[in-house]
């Protein structure tokens, strides 16, 4: 059950009207990753960050763990923060932005990570807000994230630099246009789940060939990690890597024959298309 969501709540208010550099609304998994990354990288100290969450128990736990300041309302966060990150689920965004509109916070830099919520939705709701929309992914939790951001029409170059620095604390960052975020959502946003699906299937296969699940998991995850590192660091094209590993009539060639005849390539192309289509539907854009 949610704890009390009032200013009487035990979890603190900010000391004497003091401003903080970063505020986070919604203190769940992604918020914790952002806060930890920012503190560990030295971008901001814990005392320069505040947060709010409808779930007071969750907020209290995160404040205790990280040392950030716990606010008694979402409005308090935006009014006191230089930069506000919206880290609630997409279905909770409209409630949050109407609270922020009522707080009469103007000309703020608001960074939303809510999947499928368009920049114009937030820009229209919060007067003169400079809005940046970011699509992070789950590996942000361990500093290996891929975040892509798009800037709203009011966001300045300096605002983009703020977003870049913030998400660089969690991994790599790229700026693209908002219309590209559906494809991004499908590839790097949902991608960790698709890759984990492939890995899980390969582990099942290795277990059938006699490995324990524990050993198969270790081999598979290190192989995925090392393959990503190799492709990135050497700049190798995936097709060239496949050719380099597969010698004629060898073990890899035998496996690749099955992959090709199973149409896995087409299935994965359809997978990305379905995820991108869903992202377009969620943001109310429909299909081109
Ligand atoms: N997880 C990912 O891999 C991922 C990747 C890319 C983008 N994102 C985006 O990141 C956002 C956060 O995801 P998450 O996985 O961190 O979600 P989460 O763990 O559920 O965290 C969201 C938090 O917001 C709280 N909340 C709900 N309504 C609120 C309100 N009105 N005011 C303040 N707090 C409120 C929730 O409380 P309750 O739990 O009590 O409802 C919860 O503690 C989502 O919009 C998602 O689309 C996530």
Helix content: 40-55%
Q: What do we call the CATH topology of the largest domain?
A: Rossmann fold
- CATH superfamily of the largest domain, by name, is NAD(P)-binding Rossmann-like Domain
**Number of spatially distinct domains:** 2
Task: Put the structure in a nutshell.
The chain is α/β, with parallel strands linked by helices and 288 residues long. The chain has helices at residues 29-41, 56-66, 74-80, 93-102, 119-125, 157-168, 181-189, 191-208, 213-234, 238-245, 251-261, 264-282; strands at 20-25, 49-52, 69-70, 81-86, 109-112, 130-135, 145-151, 171-175. An eight-stranded mixed sheet has the order 3-2-1-4-5-6-7-8, with helices on both faces.
Indicate the topology.
Blueprint: E1 20-25, H1 29-41, E2 49-52, H2 56-66, E3 69-70, H3 74-80, E4 81-86, H4 93-102, E5 109-112, H5 119-125, E6 130-135, E7 145-151, H6 157-168, E8 171-175, H7 181-189, H8 191-208, H9 213-234, H10 238-245, H11 251-261, H12 264-282
Parallel strand pairs: 1-2, 1-4, 2-3, 4-5, 5-6, 7-8
Antiparallel strand pairs: 6-7
The structure holds NADP nicotinamide-adenine-dinucleotide phosphate (NAP).
Residues 2, 25-31, 52-55, 58, 74, 87-90, 92, 95-96, 113-115, 135-138, 189 line the site of NADP nicotinamide-adenine-dinucleotide phosphate.
């Amino acid at each position: 059950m949610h704890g009390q969501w009032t200013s009487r709540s035990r979890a603190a208010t900010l000391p004497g009207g003091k401003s903080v550099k970063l505020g986070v609304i919604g203190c769940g998994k992604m918020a914790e990753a952002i806060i930890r990354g920012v503190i560990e990288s030295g971008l901001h100290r814990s005392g320069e960050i505040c947060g709010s969450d409808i779930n007071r128990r969750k907020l209290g736990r995160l404040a205790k763990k990280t040392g950030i300041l716990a606010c008694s309302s979402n409005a308090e966060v935006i009014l006191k923060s230089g930069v506000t990150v919206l880290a609630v689920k997409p279905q909770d965004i409209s409630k949050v932005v109407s609270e922020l509109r009522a707080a009469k916070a103007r000309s703020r830099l608001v960074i939303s990570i809510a999947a499928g919520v368009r920049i114009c939705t937030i820009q229209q709701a919060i007067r003169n807000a400079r809005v940046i929309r970011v699509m992070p992914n789950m590996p942000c939790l361990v500093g290996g994230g891929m975040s892509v951001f798009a800037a709203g029409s009011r966001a300045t170059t300096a605002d983009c630099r703020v977003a870049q620095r913030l998400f660089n604390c969690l991994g790599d960052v790229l700026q693209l246009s908002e219309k590209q975020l559906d494809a991004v959502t499908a590839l790097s946003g949902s991608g960790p789940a698709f890759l984990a699906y492939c890995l899980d299937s390969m582990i099942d296969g290795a277990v059938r060939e006699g490995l324990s699940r524990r050993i198969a998991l270790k081999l598979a995850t290190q192989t995925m990690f090392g393959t990503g590192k190799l492709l990135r660091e050497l700049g190798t094209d995936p097709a060239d890597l496949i050719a380099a590993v597969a010698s004629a009539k060898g073990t890899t060639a035998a496996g690749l024959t099955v992959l090709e005849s199973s149409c896995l390539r087409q299935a994965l192309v359809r997978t990305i298309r379905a995820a991108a289509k869903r992202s377009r539907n969620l943001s109310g854009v429909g299909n081109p």
